[in-house]
Write a structure and sequence with these properties.
Layout (H helix, E strand, L loop, with lengths): L1 E8 L5 H7 L8 E5 L7 H4 L4 H4 L9 E2 L12 E2 L21 H9 L7 H11 E3 L13 E3 L9 H11 L15 E4 L4 E2 L2 E2 L2 H6 L8 E5 L1 E9 L2 E9 L2 E13 L2 H11 L2 E2 L1 H6 L6 E2 L11 E9 L5 H4 L2 H14 L11 E5 L10 E6 L21 E8 L7 E3 L10 E3 L6 H18 L2 H4 L2 E6 L7 H11 L1 E2 L30 E3 L14 H19 L1
Parallel strand pairs: 1-2, 1-13, 2-10, 5-6, 13-24, 14-15
Antiparallel strand pairs: 3-4, 7-17, 8-9, 11-12, 12-13, 16-19, 16-22, 16-23, 17-18, 18-19, 20-21
């Protein structure tokens, strides 16, 4: 039995922030527990190497959803980071904060302190961007945000011209005064290497004597004194270990594992826990509910001009790219394949952008099952245009399947459960068609391969969406923040309703999904959450 002031469960995007910030002044003793292993692997640090981690059980939980009738009976594949840095170590690195209205919406739902004016300083605090310091952007923070436009594929210029031809505004900075427009994505890299929460926050704190980091340590339950969290039990190297927290246990295990750990510990819907023989500590019906995620549709094109396929497919192209990367930390291996994008209104009358777009100058339509061959794309020039509605209204849930903490959870996304979500994804598909028809793209497109020109009617495009649309890996809100303990899991200070000494600080607390990629706001939640914890410590 070992005693600490704080136990942080999960060294992911928020957990690494907590480990750093709670140990900065040397007053508090912190234990950080991570079920996965080290992030010090070449393919995790090389930006495009995330294709190698997409199906790697050594660094990835590799979750599967239940089959969904709304998606033609398909199971969804949900990779989640099982490694230091969590999903920030295996994601596509696109840095997007979201829209001002997202956070003002959080506040309006009964969460004081979470409006845009409250959270913007935390975004600036965490960021090291050449665009800052200014009213919007930060400089000198732990997380490097890089403008990689000088190294992007030449087809990105075609993307920008197509946006202009369609009348979409140009936006040089999606994280500036407005998110609206078409432009190029910034990514979380520093000097050609991935900048994850682990490299940004954990590496600088590793030598502190008041921080203990344990990897390969899967927490199986929270221990309680009555209804107060007192510590955790975890399994490491086959041995069962315990640790006690004098102040708080803080869950940072993510939108899947945080609610599942609560349920295995007896905090969740009482009837469901009892059905699996789990003793109930606190009947908490919202744990695991209200799950949101972004769903995306890709349109694939065969190109008349070279794409990244010609660079990354042949052995000599791989050799050239590899040598360039090793020598300069530049080139296609230092990038994400999501290079262009934007946030637009798919129809008139909307008060803000409702659709996120992606342009990827690469295609991998012939990927074998269980592979994401970013380094072995199609043997012909191809590229992708993609559309993702920003604020879906469908809600899913996650639950334990049994009392076994090592059994994968039940994940039910309920994708396309509302007419709104079907209509928005259809509008996204039609918008992609309009982009492809611009003079800029028409000059370089040889053929629309998927969905193909045979899909023309509304019904045919919806059928294509049901057969091919997939997650963009942004699950949130399963321990959502709010004032009502029947409808939310934590309050605005991220304390679990009805339980003492226990907080959740990760993407699961989002009251609603943000408009765009979720990693930046997850790290922001870690920064603000750390301040909330320290304010209570005095």
């Amino acid at each position: 039995m070992t005693d600490f002031d704080y136990i942080v469960v999960g060294a992911g995007s928020a957990g690494c922030v907590l480990a750093n910030r709670l140990t900065e002044d040397g007053r508090h003793k912190v234990l950080l527990l991570e079920a996965g292993g080290t992030d010090r692997r070449f393919f995790l640090r090389m930006p495009i190497g995330y294709g190698m981690s997409f199906y790697n059980p050594q660094v990835n939980w590799m979750y599967r959803t239940e089959p969904e009738a709304s998606l033609a009976g398909r199971q969804g594949y949900w990779p989640r980071g099982k490694v230091l840095g969590g999903s920030s170590t295996i994601n596509a690195m696109v840095f997007v904060r979201g829209q001002r209205e997202d956070f003002d919406g959080w506040k309006a739902l009964g969460n004081p302190g979470w409006g845009w004016d409250d959270v913007c300083p935390y975004f600036r605090k965490m960021e090291d961007s050449a665009r800052g310091p200014n009213e919007w952007r930060g400089r000198g923070g732990p997380l490097a945000i890089t403008d990689v436009s000088r190294d992007l594929h030449p087809l990105c210029e075609t993307w920008l011209r197509a946006g202009a031809e369609l009348g979409l505004p140009h936006n040089d900075d999606f994280n500036g005064a407005t998110q609206e427009g078409v432009g190029l994505y910034e990514i979380t890299t520093r000097n050609g290497r991935r900048a994850s929460a682990a490299t940004a926050y954990l590496d600088p704190a590793r030598g502190r004597p008041n921080l203990a980091i344990e990897i390969g340590a899967q927490v199986t339950r929270i221990e309680f004194d009555g209804t107060r969290a007192a510590g955790v039990t975890y399994v490491q190297d086959g041995a069962i270990r315990t640790a006690r927290a004098a102040r708080e246990v803080i869950l940072c295990a993510g939108a899947i594992n945080s609610p599942i750990l609560l349920q295995h510990s007896g905090v969740g819907p009482a009837a469901h826990l009892q059905a699996h023989g789990i003793p109930v500590v606190h009947d908490h019906p919202a744990v695991g509910q209200h799950m949101q995620d972004h769903l995306c549709i890709d349109h694939l094109y065969r190109s008349r001009v070279p794409t990244l396929n010609e660079v990354l497919r042949p052995w000599h192209g791989k050799l050239w790219a590899g040598l360039r990367y090793l020598a300069t930390r530049r080139g296609p291996l230092a990038l994400s394949v999501n290079q262009g994008g934007g946030f637009v209104r798919s129809r008139p009358g909307l008060d803000r952008p409702n659709m996120q777009l992606y342009f990827s100058p690469v295609s991998y339509t012939r990927a074998p099952v269980g592979k994401r061959p970013l380094m072995s794309p199609d043997p012909f020039p191809g590229f992708l245009l993609s559309a993702q509605p920003c604020r879906p209204t469908s809600r899913g849930f996650v639950q334990v399947r049994s009392a076994d903490p090592f059994e994968a959870p039940l994940i039910v996304p309920n994708s396309l459960a509302t007419p709104h979500d079907i209509e928005e994804l259809l509008e996204g598909a039609l918008l992609l068609r309009r982009l492809a028809a611009t003079p800029a793209f028409a000059a370089v497109i040889e053929e629309e391969m998927k969905p193909g020109r045979a899909a023309q009617s509304r019904e045919e495009l919806i059928d294509d969406i049901r057969r091919r649309a997939s997650t963009v890996f942004h699950p949130v809100s399963t321990c959502r923040m709010g004032p009502d303990p029947l409808q939310s899991v934590v309050d605005h200070t991220l304390r679990v309703h009805g339980i003492g000494g226990l907080r959740v600080i990760d993407a699961s607390v989002f009251p609603a999904v943000t408009s765009g990629n979720t990693n930046a706001p997850a790290i922001m939640v870690g920064e603000k959450g750390a301040d909330l914890v320290l304010a209570d410590a005095g």
